[in-house]
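HOLO CASE FILE
Compound: nicotinamide-adenine-dinucleotide
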Amino acid sequence: MSGLAVVGAGSMGAQIAQQAALHGIDVRLHDQRDEQLRKATESNRGHLNRRVEKGRLTAKDANAAAARVHPTTNLDEAVGDADVVIEAVFEDLGVKRELFAELDKLAPAASVLASNSSTMGISRIADATRRPKQCVNMHFFYPVLVMDLVEVVRGPETSDETVDRALAMARAMGRTPVLINKEIDGFIVNRILHAATQEAYRLLDAGVAGFEDIDVAVEKGLNWPMGPFRLGDFSGLDVTYRARKHMFETTGDERYRPSPRLEAKVQAGKLGRKTGEGWYRYPKADN
Ligand SMILES: NC(=O)c1ccc[n+]([C@@H]2O[C@H](COP(=O)([O-])OP(=O)(O)OC[C@H]3O[C@@H](n4cnc5c(N)ncnc54)[C@H](O)[C@@H]3O)[C@@H](O)[C@H]2O)c1
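Model generated. Tokens follow.
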């Protein structure tokens, strides 16, 4: 038994696989769709080529890293020999549970099954398998080839050995893991980000300061690379809005109610960089 399998070759899975391969790990990358595997391979090749152009990677190492990712639409072949499986399929509980039940049958009995879900604690998925002790969350950040952090979140049944193996895999991939001992909505990073973002919207809605000044205050005063409004434009205001709405609906806490000004932006289709305008305007050449 050796190596890593990544299931789901979308925005996250493709780069999780490539990141591991850049650190010498052989990876099988699975998706149900051939077309998606082709896109993932092409996109990863583009990232590697840009590193070569910038002198940050030799052409030989880029070729080796590309060759270490083995795409396959056959799930059995993908996970049959894996030490660790990282799931990165759609954020849908039913899809994930069905997949974990399948992984439980196909992956070696000793392998760890990890989910990259941003919102679903592993306890909601692990009982679809006969090995809940070997299930854990490994939450990577987008874009995985750039963002260093992995939140390793243990569920109530996750064993110490599984936690250690998830931490070790993150480190072997050249990423910095942190351990979260209790399942909690938003884990660490998104909770802190949401709290800061919510306060920024409160200040804006109360007319305390304009959004540009709030961004400048956070960027210069806290040394964050982007203030909450600039970051919202970067990730997509629809994403920020949905996250706020999810927190409000699940907790019923008024403090999480999405700002009316954010809601208005989303309804007007001003979603940030991807639509050319959000809080700021983005001339086409900058997109
Ligand atoms: N996008 C982000 O910023 C981000 C950040 C952290 C975590 N996540 C989490 O990562 C996961 C994937 O997100 P994404 O943005 O990469 O999604 P995506 O839609 O880009 O990719 C999902 C991929 O999974 C494939 N897929 C779906 N069902 C499958 C199945 N049963 N078997 C095999 N492949 C299947 C799809 O064909 C698709 O290629 C989600 O759980 C999400 O919460 C996303």
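CASE NOTES: The chain has two domains: 4-180, 190-286. The pocket of nicotinamide-adenine-dinucleotide is lined by residues 7-13, 30-33, 36, 88-91, 95, 99, 116-118, 139-142 (CB under 6 Å).
CLOSED: yes
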